[in-house]
């Protein structure tokens, strides 16, 4: 009966009516800022992972060598 996009559009329209036109831009701005912070945090975590990976690999090798 309905496709995915139709359901999403209907839900968005109902949500917009419930929130109201005054709060909708504020909500959209908050969502945008949250997405920006999430992306920034993920990039920082990836950088830390790249920095730590060689140390972790050497520790794993040391544990393997000591257990043999």
Topology, please?
Layout: H1 4-19, H2 24-67
What does this structure look like?
This protein has helices at residues 4-19, 24-67. It has 2 helices and no strands. It is an all-alpha fold and 68 residues long. The protein has one domain.
Oligomer: single chain
Tell me, briefly, the overall form: elongated
Order of helices and strands: HH
Helix content: over 70%
Number of helices: 2
Estimated radius of gyration = 23 Å
Question: What proportion strand?
Answer: under 5%
The rounded distance between the terminal residues' Cα atoms is 63 Å
Question: Which regions are unreliable across 5 or more consecutive residues at pLDDT < 50?
Answer: none
Distinctive features:
68 residues, elongated, mainly alpha
In short:
With about 70 residues, this protein is mainly alpha-helical.
């Amino acid at each position: 009966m309905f496709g995915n996009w139709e359901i999403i559009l209907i839900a968005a329209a109902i949500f917009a009516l419930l929130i109201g036109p005054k709060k909708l831009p504020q909500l959209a701005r908050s969502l945008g800022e949250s997405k920006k912070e999430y992306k920034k945090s993920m990039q920082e975590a990836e950088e830390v992972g790249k920095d730590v990976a060689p140390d972790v690999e050497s520790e794993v090798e040391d544990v393997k060598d000591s257990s043999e």
